Amino acid sequence: MDRASRFIWHLKCGRKEQKLFLEAMMTVAELFERSAESLQLFTDGEKRYSQLLFDICHEVLRTGKRGRPTKVLPKGMVVRLKNKSSKRRDSEGKLKKVETPKPEHPETTEKPEEKDVHANHVEAFNSAIRRYLSAFRRRTNTYAKSVVGLQRVLDIFWMVHNFVRSHFTTREVPAVALGIIEKGLTWEDLLQIRLIS
User: Fold this and answer.
1) What are the mean pLDDT values of the chain's consecutive 10-residue runs (197 residues total)?
2) How far is CA 109 from CA 61, 74, 77, 86, 182, in A?
């Protein structure tokens, strides 16, 4: 989710397996390649995101010193991990609230402050999805009994969130705030879009 515009780039469901994490990180890597400025990724304690992103788009930093050159994240990419566990402590026994899981490029200038590193927007969004969509609740007749059925509902929610409904914090449709479209779509517009495959 883009924090400024609240645009959701990728909304996928499934088990917490390598394939799901890889799809999400491929999307982040594509976004980084397209963007001219820096990209910051904040996760809520899940280390697999940073490891996969590092495997996909690391750079080799040649310093001219002897030995194997170190692998770092590309210039402009920042990854921070918010620690929620008491198990991650430094050498003095103090809990580190924010961790840098992978080495960054030395020329990366835009470093986030510790208070800005959180995944609260995404966590709140996930709980809102559970409230809105009856497909997530087992007590309803419309509960999605398969991943395909659940993904279908999520795809519709993704379109409505990004292109139809204005977000309550920004007072804009997320796609308009990001500059993808000039004005938000109506339900009529959305239902008349033809998919070309």
Assistant:
1) 79 80 81 73 73 79 83 81 65 70 77 69 75 69 73 86 84 87 87 74
2) 16, 12, 10, 30, 32
